[in-house]
């Protein structure tokens, strides 16, 4: 009745995390290249957890897999990333080559397939992922478009039915096991056979995996039955059999095979050439002689000189030193490492100008490897593997290693601190303010740190307010704005874009707003932009070829100009834009305003009175009030003021001035377009009864 448990252990058997399993029926577990755990369920759902049993996300392998269920599944790795392949209850294959960029492919059907294949594997050839499956004595190859029958070259006719197949870690080699105990080993292209072997064991093995070293010509396959291992390959040694104390599980890796049981963790691998040369019995290799020379030197024996002389006579001392340095890297026991490095150091003393970099680097690397191989850390990497430590959240150790290796801050410490911060934002027991403050205190202005990436992780974890607080520490607006838009904080994104002064960034936000907001809200936001940053608004109108709004912008801007030349220049720009917008009324009005401004400047210079910024009517009235009737008539003609309006302006101004004589002359100059009642009314208004009677 108890729920199943999902437990994750370190390679040394220390429990890292444990959770009760509350999801569906599991079919397969597998690891991604970045050490995330993939849990493949019967319904085709794939759940992803990190090393500490913390759920990250999930995805589905499609409706067909959901309807027919998952019979078998495999996790594989290619240059595209980590992939998942599924065999459904309908005996069809579906796969994705990259779980981070999910694109599902349904493989072609195998004609007449009524039962699950006896074995199958995923191959990667020429950047194309294909499926190889066995049904009895037949092999089928499924690519993107077709299903074809294939026959391995040199396969014995009496080999029998296929029971097991294995693909090498680098996808270059393939091994097949049949029900007669026959093992075929060849290239995964199925174009060349490497070797064959008869194991004389007819029962189906529990596992079969490749055991190879990079760039080695020795190729071997490890076959596992209950508590028995068989290693066969293309070497002259033929086969090797090992009896195990417990049931074990094999994990193929880049340069060997890990053998895991309930109580132990072993590593089976090909002995590197440098180690073979030094440690094989009665070896006369230069590295072996140098190691013996150093041991004899410590004993204060004259044999040390004899061994050293023998190496020097053959001019092989540099090779001997290099052999000892290389072999030290492949050793797991610190005592053996030290012995080999002492021999290398001893040999260096007798070489002129031997470059020390390889020796120093090996000493540094071994200190790192020995530190992480400690059972409390539990990462027993080989020298060939030796990747980063950050994914295990061993931040202090990783930082010390970076400092020890003298990595640049951007390459080392910055990357580790950024990873720590991304982990920190997932801690739900602390408030947004506490987490943001703690991250800023630790990271500060460390080079290479991107607060926007950390904020993005916080947003993915559902902590939007924390993400906004973290973005305040991001100095680059170009990094702030896209994330704010993603978080639907458009107004804040616009503010940040305007603050940056980057018009392209502002334009990006405005285009986003145009698609996101309704028309009314969008124009309200533009008004905000209009009041906050007018130059930005001008650039937006420019990029959008909005000549009407550009004209309005220049008219508005002209009033902020203190010098008349600047004002006329702004209005001239507005005139050009109105012509482009084909708005003749606005163009004519602007042209008249330019003409009026120029005339007002001359009037101001001639009469030493303020005329600038008066309207046309006020300018005419003021000229009449000041007794400059001829100049007023000039404006009347130039601006084509309607007769009725001009007569009203003039009689009002003359009455205000009290120039009744001029008023009488004006009334008799020609027939009044406004009649004579206005003359009477204005005279009465100003209490001039005689003028009214006249």
TrEMBL record:
<dbReference type="InterPro" id="IPR006926">
    <property type="entry name" value="Vps16_N"/>
</dbReference>
<protein>
    <recommendedName>
        <fullName>Vacuolar protein sorting-associated protein 16 homolog</fullName>
    </recommendedName>
</protein>
<keyword id="KW-0175">Coiled coil</keyword>
<feature type="coiled-coil region">
    <location>
        <begin position="290"/>
        <end position="317"/>
    </location>
</feature>
<dbReference type="InterPro" id="IPR038132">
    <property type="entry name" value="Vps16_C_sf"/>
</dbReference>
<dbReference type="GO" id="GO:0005765">
    <property type="term" value="C:lysosomal membrane"/>
</dbReference>
<feature type="domain" description="Vps16 C-terminal">
    <location>
        <begin position="449"/>
        <end position="692"/>
    </location>
</feature>
<dbReference type="Pfam" id="PF04841">
    <property type="entry name" value="Vps16_N"/>
</dbReference>
<dbReference type="GO" id="GO:0030897">
    <property type="term" value="C:HOPS complex"/>
</dbReference>
<comment type="subunit">
    <text>Core component of at least two putative endosomal tethering complexes, the homotypic fusion and vacuole protein sorting (HOPS) complex and the class C core vacuole/endosome tethering (CORVET) complex. Their common core is composed of the class C Vps proteins VPS11, VPS16, VPS18 and VPS33A, which in HOPS further associates with VPS39 and VPS41 and in CORVET with VPS8 and TGFBRAP1. Interacts with RAB5C. Interacts with STX17, MON1B. Associates with adapter protein complex 3 (AP-3) and clathrin:AP-3 complexes.</text>
</comment>
<dbReference type="GO" id="GO:0042144">
    <property type="term" value="P:vacuole fusion, non-autophagic"/>
</dbReference>
<dbReference type="GO" id="GO:0010008">
    <property type="term" value="C:endosome membrane"/>
</dbReference>
<dbReference type="InterPro" id="IPR016534">
    <property type="entry name" value="VPS16"/>
</dbReference>
<dbReference type="Pfam" id="PF04840">
    <property type="entry name" value="Vps16_C"/>
</dbReference>
<feature type="domain" description="Vps16 N-terminal">
    <location>
        <begin position="2"/>
        <end position="361"/>
    </location>
</feature>
<dbReference type="InterPro" id="IPR006925">
    <property type="entry name" value="Vps16_C"/>
</dbReference>
<dbReference type="GO" id="GO:0006886">
    <property type="term" value="P:intracellular protein transport"/>
</dbReference>
<dbReference type="GO" id="GO:0016197">
    <property type="term" value="P:endosomal transport"/>
</dbReference>
<dbReference type="GO" id="GO:0003779">
    <property type="term" value="F:actin binding"/>
</dbReference>
<comment type="similarity">
    <text>Belongs to the VPS16 family.</text>
</comment>
């Amino acid at each position: 009745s108890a729920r199943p448990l999902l437990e994750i252990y370190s390679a040394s058997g220390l429990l890292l995390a444990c959770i009760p399993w509350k999801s569906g029926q599991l079919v397969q577990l597998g690891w991604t290249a970045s050490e995330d755990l993939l849990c493949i369920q019967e319904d085709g759902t794939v759940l992803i957890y990190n090393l500490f049993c913390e759920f990250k996300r999930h995805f589905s392998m499609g409706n067909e897999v959901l309807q027919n269920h998952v019979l078998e599944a495999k996790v594989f790795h290619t240059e595209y990333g980590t992939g998942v392949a599924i065999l459904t209850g309908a005996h069809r294959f579906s796969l994705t080559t990259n779980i981070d960029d999910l694109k599902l492919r349904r493989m072609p059907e195998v004609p007449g397939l009524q039962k699950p294949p006896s074995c199958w594997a995923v191959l990667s050839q020429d950047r194309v992922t294909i499926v190889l499956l066995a049904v009895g004595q037949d092999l089928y190859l499924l690519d993107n478009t077709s299903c074809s029958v294939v026959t391995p070259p040199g396969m014995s006719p009496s080999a029998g039915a296929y029971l097991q197949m294995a693909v090498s870690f680098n996808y270059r080699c393939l091994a097949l096991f049949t029900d007669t105990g026959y093992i075929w080993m060849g290239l995964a292209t199925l174009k060349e056979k490497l070797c064959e072997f008869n194991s004389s064991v007819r029962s189906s093995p529990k596992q079969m995996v490749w055991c190879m070293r990079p760039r080695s010509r020795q190729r071997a396959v490890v076959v596992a039955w209950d508590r028995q291992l068989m290693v066969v390959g293309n070497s002259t040694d033929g086969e090797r059999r090992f009896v195990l104390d417990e049931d074990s599980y094999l994990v193929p890796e880049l340069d060997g095979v890990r053998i895991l049981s309930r109580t132990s963790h072993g590593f089976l691998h090909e002995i590197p050439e440098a180690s073979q040369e030094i440690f094989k019995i009665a070896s006369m290799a230069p590295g072996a002689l140098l190691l013996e020379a150093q041991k004899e030197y410590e004993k204060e024996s004259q044999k040390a000189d004899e061994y050293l002389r023998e190496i020097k006579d053959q001019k092989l001392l540099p090779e001997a030193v290099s052999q000892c340095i290389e072999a030290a890297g492949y050793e797991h026991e610190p005592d053996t490492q030290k012995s080999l490095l002492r021999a290398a150091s001893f040999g260096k003393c007798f070489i002129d100008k031997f470059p020390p970099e390889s020796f120093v680097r090996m000493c540094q690397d071994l200190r790192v490897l020995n530190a992480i191989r400690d059972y409390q850390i539990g990462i027993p990497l080989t020298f060939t593997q030796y990747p980063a430590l950050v994914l295990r959240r061993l931040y202090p150790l990783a930082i010390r290693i970076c400092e020890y290796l003298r990595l640049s801050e951007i390459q080392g410490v910055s990357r580790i601190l950024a990873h720590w911060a991304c982990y920190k934002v997932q801690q739900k027991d602390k408030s947004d303010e506490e987490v943001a403050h703690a991250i800023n205190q630790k990271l500060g202005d460390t080079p290479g740190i991107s607060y926007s990436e950390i904020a993005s992780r916080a947003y993915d974890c559902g902590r939007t307010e924390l993400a906004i607080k973290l973005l305040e520490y991001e100095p680059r607006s170009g990094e702030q704005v896209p994330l704010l838009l993603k978080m639907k904080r458009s107004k804040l994104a616009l503010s940040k874009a305007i603050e940056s002064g980057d018009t392209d960034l502002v334009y990006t936000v405005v285009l986003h707003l145009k698609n996101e907001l309704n028309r009314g809200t969008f124009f309200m936001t533009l008004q905000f932009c209009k009041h906050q940053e007018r130059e930005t608004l001008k650039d937006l109108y420019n990029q959008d070829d909005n000549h009407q709004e550009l004209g309005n912008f220049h008219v508005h801007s002209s009033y902020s100009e203190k010098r008349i030349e600047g004002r006329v220049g702004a209005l001239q720009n507005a005139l050009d834009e109105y012509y482009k917008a084909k708005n003749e009324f606005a163009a004519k009005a602007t042209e008249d305003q330019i003409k009026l401004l120029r005339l007002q400047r001359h009037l101001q210079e001639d009469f030493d009175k303020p005329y600038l910024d008066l309207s046309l009517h006020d300018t005419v009235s003021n000229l009449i009030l000041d007794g400059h009737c001829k100049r007023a008539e000039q404006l009347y003609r130039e601006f084509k003021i309607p007769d009725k309006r001009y007569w009203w302006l003039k009689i009002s101004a003359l009455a205000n001035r009290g120039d009744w004589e001029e008023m009488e002359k004006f009334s008799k100059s020609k027939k009044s377009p406004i009649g004579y009642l206005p003359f009477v009314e204005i005279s009465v208004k100003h209490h001039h009864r005689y003028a009214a009677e006249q």
